[in-house]
Every structure is written in C-alpha cells, then in structure tokens.
Specification:
Length: 124
C-alpha cells in the first residue's frame, strides 16, 4: 500500500476502505489468503467469469493491495500486506462471524488445472 504523506490520512484511508468494501474484492482477498492464486483458480473458487475477476483484480492492484509474479502463462496474485487479512478478521469478529465463516478459502479445486490445484508448484 502506497502511503503518500502528501495525501491526507482521511482521504487515503477512505480510498482503501472503498476498494476493500466491494464484496467480490473481499472474496478475492480471502481466496488468496496468505498464499497466492492465479485468475483461473479464482474463477473456480469464486464461480465468477474471468473478465469480472480481472476487473476486480485491476482495482486491487491500482489500490496497491496486490502484487504479482508470472510463471509461464500464469500470473499469480499475492497480498502486498498480510495485515489486510487481520483487518478482515477484525471486521468479521465485530459482526459476530466465527473465524471459520470468513477465514481464507484458498483451496485446491478439482476443476482447475492451474499449477496450484494440480500440484505442479507449491504456490500457497
């Protein structure tokens, strides 16, 4: 996250919270969790179209929330700062959800042929 002292705290915090406030973006962050995930993996986990997920990933990257690395034809997304998961967990607890209800859901998916799910690499 780019902390620019030229931008007032209130404006920077509001922008970050607005970005995180989109339900699909929160799902993406939870699906990535402490590891990383490619778009095809996120498609299977979230049940959304590639174009829609890519749009949300772009918003998260523009907010400087995610970082990427490329391996062959796969682009893997990772949280730039793991403390975002702590913020999500805190919000979950404040709303009365158990950790199991909002915990990261980055798991192998049988219909996904990405390296994460096939075990070709140990990405997460």
């Amino acid at each position: 996250m780019n902390m620019n002292s030229a931008i007032p705290f209130e404006e920077a915090a509001s922008t970050l919270l607005k970005t995180l406030g989109h339900p699909t973006r929160l799902e993406i962050l939870l699906a990535i969790g402490e590891g990383e995930a490619c778009v095809c993996h996120l498609e299977r986990v979230l049940g959304q179209r590639q174009a829609y997920i890519s749009q949300q990933l772009m918003a998260l990257r523009e907010a400087d929330v995610l970082t990427t690395r490329q391996e062959g034809r796969y682009v893997f997304y990772r949280l730039k700062d793991q403390r975002l998961l702590e913020i999500i967990a805190l919000v979950g607890r404040m709303l009365g959800y158990s950790q199991a209800e909002y915990k990261a859901r980055n798991k192998k998916v049988s219909q996904c042929d990405c390296p994460h799910c096939t075990g070709a690499i140990e990405c997460c």
